[in-house]
Amino acid sequence: MLVTARLRLFLLLGVFALVTAVALIRIGYLGLVGAAPNQTSLDEALLPPRGEITDRNGTPLARTFPAYALWFNPKAMGDDGDPLVREPVEVAARLKEIFPDLDVRRTVRILSSDRGGYILRRVLPEDANRVFELGEVALEIPREYDRHYPQGTLGAHILGYVMEGKDRELEGRLGMEKYLDPQLSDPVSRGEPFALSIDLRVQGALEDELGRGMLATDAKGAAGIVLDVDTGEIMAMASLPAFDPNLSDVQHSPHIFNRVTNATYELGSTFKPLAIAAAIDADLIGSLRKEWDASPVEIAGRRIRDLHPKGDTLNVPEALVYSSNTVTARVADELGPERMRKLMIDLGMNKPAEIELDARGKPQWPLEQPNGQWSRITNMTVSYGHGIAVTPLHLANAYAAMVNGGFYRDATLRKVEPGKAEKGRRVFKASTSSRMRQLLRMISMYGTGRSADAPGYRVGGKTGSAEKAGVGGYREKSLIASFAAAFPMDRPRYVVVTVLDEPRGTTASQMQRTAAFNAAPIVGELVPRIGPMLGVRPDATRDVDISDLRFLVEGRR
């Protein structure tokens, strides 16, 4: 018996030793290569499941926070009977008393279904308590996370919105929410807010002035952009009417369409400086004193004429100041379709503009001949902004290249750190860019851009008023009015583009539907508001030196 007892003891000790050895081996394995405790568990516990988006100065634009929702669960009672104590119509009526904006018909439909679903999102705690007091077990108040946009509609087309995806997680469905989705939902990176390039103060001013312009002219829509010419950063971008990303049915909003990056327009005379810059760059305009024929151009059965003729001949500065179609067409004709087409390709006018957003409109590129070139008439009409339709973003990029020394850069909604800007590619000579700064400034001093000439800010730019294409041809009473500008022209830092879609005019301005009377004044009001925010202070003692060109216009005004 003693021997048997000792054997059992040794056997028991052996089992304990074996279990201990296995445990030690397992612990050692987990410590080296196994599934050690998750290092981000603290982040998981303390951070919301989606990162924050801010403007370039750290102002919050999108945040995630715990919230409540109202959910109908038809299986709340299992198989023991009807999940509701009262009839669906009566329950919906009582919920209406708690939530005045509730869609009763939709709620009754949900309560009568055996599939269940959300009745409301974003329920306040005090309202949740009132729902509990109804005594309906099937009305559940799940705690979940919600995305909130504290600035409301401001910058909505930039931010986009989120929707609940798989595993009930928030997923970006539009705008930067979609583009940044991997980073915003990553447990490692979501703890750091993502800074966009936009300045919320500038964004607010742009939307405010565009809204005023729409109201003053009874326009159906508006678009605007403020772009840093040296980095490609978008400081503000607005498409009106806007939408509210906080609404639960935001995906059904009719205003989600982005007029800045997705809508293509024939932008008219804003293209004239680009055509003149191409001719100067090609050394076809040796002297700006040269007189060009300003009489109507008869070509291919069409007649190109000036809306307000200023004489039989005009020099190039006068052609831009007075917005001459005929002189611009003749300059383009001398330049030739091959070089004009190449310039438009170099400026990215033949493809959607590069930007982080999915909403990117494809330009309406002119028809080409079998040899891949444009016809003579196409070349002429493109020079003054007809026959080619691009987005306002395309135009802003082109003007930035024209005034910043000649370098083209793709626009971006990411904040660019100092010294990290894209180098860009040369499109114009530096001397051409310098000359165009003079000419654009003269348009604002003497021509159609005078209403944009904010004192002290040395604004330079070009207006454009183009009839909208429709079935059977152009619609004479439907215009796209635009103004493309830069400031300050002695050292350009920002490009501003404003567009009004079908400004119909009010009783006081029925005859003033062209850009000189509507799109340009918006810039004139906007620049003094945003200049100090962007570090550009008014200075009446500085300006572009136009002493060698002034007499070409002043002597004949």
Please explain how this structure is put together.
This protein has helices at about 1-30, 40-45, 90-100, 105-110, 125-130, 155-160, 175-180, 180-185, 200-215, 270-280, 315-320, 325-335, 335-345, 375-385, 390-405, 430-445, 520-530, 550-555, and strands spanning about 55, 60-70, 115-125, 140, 145-150, 160-165, 170, 195, 220-230, 235-240, 290-295, 295-300, 300-305, 315, 405-410, 425, 460-470, 475-485, 495-500. The protein has about 550 residues and is α+β, with helices and mostly antiparallel strands. The strands form six sheets. Strands 1, 2, 3, 4, 5 and 8 form a six-stranded mixed β-sheet that branches. It has a five-stranded antiparallel β-sheet with strand order 10-9-19-18-17, with helices on both faces. Helix 3 (about 90-100) crosses helix 4 (about 105-110), helix 9 (about 200-215) runs antiparallel to helix 17 and helix 10 packs antiparallel against helix 16 (about 430-445). The longest helix is centred in the first third of the chain and has 31 residues, at about 1-30. Residues about 35-40 have low confidence and may be disordered.
Brief summary:
This protein is α+β, with helices and mostly antiparallel strands and 557 residues long. The protein is built from 18 helices and 19 strands.
**Extended strand count:** 19
- Percent helix range: 25-40%
N-C termini distance = 129 Å
What number is the mean pLDDT?
A: 90
From the spread of the alpha carbons, the general shape counts as elongated
Largest sheet: 6 strands, mixed
Continuous helix count: 18
Radius of gyration: 32 Å
Structural class of the secondary elements?
Answer: alpha+beta
